[in-house]
Every structure is written in C-alpha cells, then in structure tokens.
C-alpha cells in the first residue's frame, strides 16, 4: 500500500483559487460600469418612483364598469389556452416519443429534436408577431403561438422522461410478441404517465398566462384589451384587467392541483 | 462444430444450428451453438457469467439478433424472421427474466394480461379490450402461482419471489410452445429459488412444453433438469442427462476446482 509522504507538510485543500477571484472581480467591475452607462442615479430612481405613485393612484379604485368587454377577453384567453394546450400536448406526445433516443433511431430522433429546439428558440412574443403577420390578427395567431410554445417546452420534457425509463420492462413486453404501439402503451406509458400529467398541467398553467400576453401584439385574448386600455390611459380599467388575470391564473393553479390529485 | 443433421421434424420444439453472435466484430460471444430440443421438461443451461447464456436465450426470441446460424422453431427459421412473422413467433415463446421485468406501475393482474398483447391489435390494446376468456385464464394462472389475493396490487409492491411468480404467469399466459428463463432464481433466496423452479417444472409438464433455464446453481439445476447443457466461453462442452455431468466437466465449465466441495 502506498504510504503518505510525511516529509513535506500537506497543503490545505481549500486553498485560494486566484482565477475564480479574478472572475468575480471582473463581474463586479462590469456591474459598476453598467450602472454608470445606463445613467442610473438616485435622482432618476426617485423621479421614476414619483411616476409610479401617480399611476397607482389612478389605478384605484379599479373600474369594472366595462365588465362585458373584460369577460369577452377573458373567455377568449381561456378558450385559446385550452385549445392550444390540447393540441400542444397531443402533438408533444408524438414528438416527444419520436425525439426519445432510446426508442427511435438517430435519423428520426435528430430531426425531431431539432424541430423541438426550433420551437423553443423564440420567445412567444416573437412567434406571436410572426403568426399575426402570416395568418392575420385574432385568436388563431394566438392559438398557433401557444401550440408552438407548448411543443418547445413539454415535447422536450416528454422526450427526457421517456429516455429515463427502465428498458427492462420494455424488453419484457417486446418478448410477448407485442407490436410497437402495444409496447409503447403497456411498457412506456405506465412508466411516464404521471410525469406527463404533471408536465401537461404545468403547460396549461403556462398557456393561460401567455394567452393574456399574446393579445398585446394582436393575437387575441385579454392582452389586446389590456394594451388598448393602457394606450387610452384608462388606468382604473387596467387595474380591473390585472385583477382578472390574477384570478384566472389562480383558477388555473386550482384546476391543475385537482387534475394532479386525480391522476396520482 | 456445425453439424449437418437435417433440421427439425415434427417432434422438434427447437433446433439451433451454428448459432453465432458477436457484439464487436471478430470477438464472438457465441461461437457456433448446436442443439435440439425434442422433449418437454426443464433443460438447464449452466456456465459461468459472461459465457453467453443470456445472449443465447435472447437470440432465440430475437431480443438480440444473432450474427450467423439458424434457429428452427415452429417450422420457420426464427433467425431470419421480421416484423409480423417475428412477433407471431415471439407469441409462442414465453420468457422469464432474472430481474422479473414486470411493468411496475401496472397491477399484478394487468401484468399477467400483458402476456396476451402479442395476440391483440394495437387498437384492442389501446382500448384494453382483453377477451373474457383471457381475463379468466389470467385469474386462474394467478391462482395457480398462489397470488390470487394480490391481483389488484401494484407490481412494485410485491416481494422478489412474488414478482417472479407474476413473471412466470405472464410468460405462461402467452400459451407458449417453449419457455425461456434467464437466471430466474439468482436474485432470490434458496427456498424461494426452489419454489420458482417447481413452478417452472409444473407449467412445463402441465403444458407439455420444454423450459430452457439459464442457471448457475449446479445443485438446483441437477435437481430439476431432465437434461443439462454446459457452456464455457461460447461453446457447448456438455450436453446430456444431469447424472452424466462429472466434476471434470464442471472444472472445464467453470474453471478451477476449489469451489467443488
């Protein structure tokens, strides 16, 4: 057995690392530089907070008198989110399966992974602008945006969940002579189903949130109402819309908790 | 090694000729396997780990594709079968695994029923449309492996021995013409191991089919097998009745002798 060399004193293993200290120093210097470059001074911040104060003052009390407009936008957002979640999840199920490297040969999984990565590349706002320009104003553009966003997010999670399953169970079902679809149904799905439910409810939640945003660029839903209220300085109506969005998101949260409990 | 005997007659359950498998080119793990299974009953395949026993069984039901050779089963060459034909042949081969390989999130009875999937269309599988006859058979099988009261428990709540019983029930559910068992007892305690071998023996005689069992416990193999096949370094070095296997054979199969007491 090798003996420790006791002739020299061993070093402290937690010794200072100069290159890491150097990196921290660079980050600190850049932060200070950025503050100066942006012209962020106390005076500017105080000035800004004053404006915020006026805005808050004009927001309260919230004005629900145009509740029909509000409810119309809300209903549209909800419908967009539900439709987009349905198609997004169904498409992601297949795309996720085709992207899983343990289920598919490379010539299938690599292009599908590329497509999913493409869907993730752009922020929903950019995708929404693209769809508004290509299919026109309105909820259709919003739905397409949310479908793309859903695929970019959960198809990847689905694929990763499938890649983590135990192949022993798959082998056993294959050995019974089952066809490909039956193997997926009886050995892959049982292993990933509860995680899929989790991802899907999360995506529904996320789509609800995004469905109130895509309207800002003209893709339907409550966001459009919000944007025009801002532009007309109807800040009390803006407050009413924001409160409605909070209620919608909390309702979504409640819904996904219920779904998760049912499928656990 | 490859012999020129005519392949497969009516009494043949399985005939293997010149079976080779190499995972990396030029480094074969099976170096030409020949044998015939012509009678029902347990055939024990013994040999040290890494000698290709698992590969041999997996080549038979084509979970692994052999490199060369012929596998004659049900009057067809299994080594060349593809798609529909391969799946139809797999239906007739029940397999039992070392680590049971149950679908953990499904219940015990659902796991037994998966043995019928090969006989169902994808559409029937999607709707879980198992015939009443299959469901009755599944419960009878579960009863005969002694797990009737566990039917609706999830498979991952069972003990090792219980899981292996479910694994056997699933394989028998296929109504197979042959059973393959890959080290079915090596994850189990000695008493449970004997019970599992008894079950394999029971179904083998009840269904009048052979059961090829990979096993490294020579004593257990001798006790249950009608015939033993000894493998060493990818070739068969003994093939005959259990009484005929001598310490010299075992030395040749496993190497060394200090373990022979």
From TrEMBL, chain A:
Pfam families (UniProt xref): BPD_transp_1 (PF00528)
Keyword Transmembrane carried by entry: yes
Full protein name: Phosphonate ABC transporter, permease protein PhnE
Origin superkingdom: Bacteria
Gene Ontology annotations for the cellular component aspect, listed alphabetically: plasma membrane
Compartments where located: Cell membrane
Organism for this UniProt entry: Marinomonas transparens
Regions that span the bilayer: 23-45, 80-100, 112-131, 137-159, 171-193, 237-259
TrEMBL record, chain B:
Gene Ontology, cellular component aspect: plasma membrane
Subcellular location: Cell inner membrane
Keywords, sorted A to Z: ATP-binding, Cell membrane, Membrane, Nucleotide-binding, Translocase, Transport
Membrane topology, record value: Peripheral membrane protein
Gene3D superfamilies membership: P-loop containing nucleotide triphosphate hydrolases
Origin superkingdom: Bacteria
Organism annotation: Marinomonas transparens
GO molecular function: ABC-type phosphonate transporter activity; ATP binding; ATP hydrolysis activity
Domain annotation ABC transporter: ranges: 14-258
Protein name from the UniProt record: Phosphonate ABC transporter ATP-binding protein
């Amino acid at each position: 057995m090798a003996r420790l060399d006791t002739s020299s004193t061993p070093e402290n293993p937690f010794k200072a690392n100069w290159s890491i200290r150097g990196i921290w120093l660079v980050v600190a210097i850049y932060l200070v530089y950025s503050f100066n470059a942006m012209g962020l001074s106390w005076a500017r911040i105080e000035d800004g907070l004053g404006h915020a104060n006026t805005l808050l003052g004009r927001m309260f009390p919230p004005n629900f008198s145009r509740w029909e407009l509000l409810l119309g936008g809300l209903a549209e957002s909800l419908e967009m989110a539900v439709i987009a979640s349905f198609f997004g999840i169904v498409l992601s199920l297949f795309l996720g399966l085709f992207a899983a490297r343990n289920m598919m040969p490379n010539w299938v999984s690599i292009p599908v992974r590329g497509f999913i990565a493409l869907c993730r590349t752009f922020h929903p706002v950019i995708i929404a602008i693209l769809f508004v320009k290509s299919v026109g104003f309105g909820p259709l553009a919003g739905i397409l945006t949310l479908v793309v966003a859903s695929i970019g997010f959960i198809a990847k999670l689905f694929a990763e969940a499938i890649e983590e399953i135990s192949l022993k169970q798959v082998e056993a079902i294959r050995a019974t002579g089952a066809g490909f679809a039956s193997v997926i149904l009886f050995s892959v799905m049982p292993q990933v189903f509860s995680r899929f439910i989790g991802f899907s409810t999360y995506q529904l939640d996320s789509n609800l949130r995004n469905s109130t945003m895509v309207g800002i660029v003209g893709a339907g839903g409550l966001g459009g109402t919000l944007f025009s209220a801002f532009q007309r300085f109807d800040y009390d109506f803006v407050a009413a819309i924001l409160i409605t969005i909070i209620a919608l998101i909390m309702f979504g949260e409640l819904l996904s908790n219920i779904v998760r409990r049912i499928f656990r | 090694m490859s012999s020129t005997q005519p392949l497969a007659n009516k009494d043949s359950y399985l005939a293997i000729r010149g079976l080779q498998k190499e995972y990396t080119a030029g480094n074969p793990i099976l170096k030409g396997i020949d044998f015939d299974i012509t009678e029902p009953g347990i055939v024990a395949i013994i040999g040290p780990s890494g000698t290709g026993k698992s590969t041999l069984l997996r080549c038979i039901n084509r979970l692994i594709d052999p490199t060369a050779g012929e596998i004659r089963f049900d009057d067809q060459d299994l080594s060349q079968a593809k798609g529909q034909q391969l799946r139809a042949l797999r239906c007739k081969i029940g397999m039992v695994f070392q680590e049971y390989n149950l679908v953990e999130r499904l219940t015990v009875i659902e796991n037994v029923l998966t043995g019928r999937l090969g006989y169902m269309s994808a559409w029937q599988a999607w709707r879980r449309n198992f015939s009443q006859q299959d469901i009755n058979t599944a419960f009878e099988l579960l009863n005969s492996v002694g797990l009737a009261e566990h039917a609706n428990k999830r498979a991952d709540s069972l003990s090792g021995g219980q899981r292996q019983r479910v694994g056997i029930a699933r394989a028998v559910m296929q109504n197979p013409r042959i059973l393959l068992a890959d080290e079915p007892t090596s994850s189990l305690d000695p008493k449970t191991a004997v019970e599992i071998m008894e079950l394999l023996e029971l179904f083998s005689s009840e269904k009048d089919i052979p059961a090829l069992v990979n096993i490294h416990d020579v004593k257990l193999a001798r006790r249950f097998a009608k015939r033993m096949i000894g493998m060493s370094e990818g070739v068969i070095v003994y093939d005959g009745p259990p009484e005929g296997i001598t310490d010299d054979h075992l030395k040749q199969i496993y190497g060394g002798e200090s373990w022979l007491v």
